[in-house]
Design goal:
The protein has about 220 residues and is an alpha/beta fold. The chain contains nine helices and seven strands. It starts with a helix and ends with a helix.
């Protein structure tokens, strides 16, 4: 990751993102978790679009997010591959069963960096299934447990570009309270059951953040 390049991109894109996203940030409990993140943490979000990443990046503007990025993005050309590398993205080859991305992310988290994961993995029309969210892949649970860092759950409404104009809305995001998976791990259960339960818990938590976001929006 080239920190100078990353900050150059963030600063030059700052005026554009205000115009494009018109983002509105909400909090489950602002006294517990604001936009400032101290130490290592893993931000976990639902996933609508490639624009979810810059929205979250500008939400947590003060930290450099190490994001898991699917190989399909890198296949868009040499420039995109170079660009992702400079931003500090961690490549995920989903079809090769190469799990080196997990150890790479754990190392970053242990170094007190902030990671970003979209456990649904894929975007598009499939997001209409399973009450608006796809099944979560459990790798983020392993990474958070191994690194010993909290999860910061967020929900984005996925309203960008044409959708924003069509719905007369804006990009909205809500930041939830940190989740400490280590404290929730049940030694009386198998590792597999623990991972499944924790994965489903975080998914349900983020889904409920979406409901809370809509409630706060109605109350405005």
């Amino acid at each position: 990751m080239n920190r100078f390049f990353l900050w150059f991109v963030k600063l030059t894109g700052l005026p554009l993102q205000y115009f494009y996203f018109r983002k509105k940030i909400y909090y489950e409990d602002k006294s517990i978790q604001r936009r400032k993140i101290k130490g290592g943490a893993l931000v976990v979000s639902n996933h609508y679009s490639v624009y979810d990443y810059p929205l979250i990046m500008y939400t947590f503007f003060g930290r450099s997010l190490r994001t898991l990025v699917a190989e399909v993005i890198y296949q868009k050309g040499k420039f995109m591959s170079w660009f992702m590398k400079r931003l500090g993205a961690i490549r995920v080859d989903r079809d090769s069963y190469d799990f080196s991305f997990m150890s790479a992310m754990v190392k970053c988290l242990k170094d007190r960096q902030v990671g970003l994961v979209f456990p649904e993995s894929r975007i598009g029309e499939e997001n209409e299934k399973l009450d608006g969210m796809l099944e979560f892949k459990p790798s983020f649970v392993y990474m958070a447990l191994e690194a010993g860092v909290p999860i910061i759950p967020v929900y984005v409404n996925g309203v960008y570009g044409k959708d924003k104009r069509k719905k007369h809305d804006r990009a909205r995001i809500i930041i939830g309270k940190p989740i400490n998976l280590q404290e929730m791990y049940d030694e009386n259960k198998s590792e597999k059951d623990n991972i499944n339960d924790l994965c489903n818990y975080v998914r349900e938590y983020i889904k409920n953040l979406g409901k809370l976001l809509e409630q706060k929006k109605r109350e405005e």
